[in-house]
């Protein structure tokens, strides 16, 4: 049995002289967000540094050459994917448009690792790729909030939770951004204790470690710039009813005010009428679906609550200056 002594040195209280590091495979997908990647691997590197021991071994997988990030960084491959692997955890790190991922060989390899008993996870858009591989059935999961609506449309059976990270048996999913810092804190804490995990987090000035259930976004009041409970209730209802829009009277009932009062609040605090704000919200969701998923125009129209594709196309053009089809081509 291994533990860290007071000097952060590895000792084996069972009497053995050697131990095997916890082997973490990283599969970066071209266009991955560098922030998500760094917050995933750097705590493991720091754990090795602070303990002066190889607690973790990181293996980078790629089916090609160096993998480009969304910025200028390239990640060098240390191993080829494809066969059985002697790893304890594999994390797929993806960003950009994970719905465009179409590497059938990688998807099959992920299934092979699952059959082999490897714990598998996704960071940011990596959770989308796990769903594509059919590995999230019956598992709770999370994904970056930008991809949540599209993933729900394409894989309606996915049990998506809007939180920082989810550990469900042999699956680990994380929203990306800085959330992997919190995930890695939990991982290191479970293996080497909370005291050592705190030292690793402090190494990165990560003094406010968040819980798994913490939200991915600021509170609705913060995003709106208003503490009006009536506005918060109305906008929250809008976000919950993108595909099945509520009427002005229904929104007013939820907010606990008259339709006229609600319109006045929206005009004063948010600069537009209630329903204009609602339509712009639905069109923003539509734009993300158009740019980031293979969904057809008709499917996007239905998913965002427009009665017909022609009505949707007209509203989209009026709001963004281009048709939905052109918007997809421009991207």
From TrEMBL:
Domain HTH araC/xylS-type, first and last residues per copy: 232-330
CDD domains: GATase1_AraC_ArgR_like
Keyword set, alphabetical order: DNA-binding, Transcription, Transcription regulation
Keyword DNA-binding: yes
UniProt signal peptide: none
GO molecular function: DNA-binding transcription factor activity; sequence-specific DNA binding
Annotated protein name in UniProt: GlxA family transcriptional regulator
Protein's organism: Boseongicola sp. SB0664_bin_43
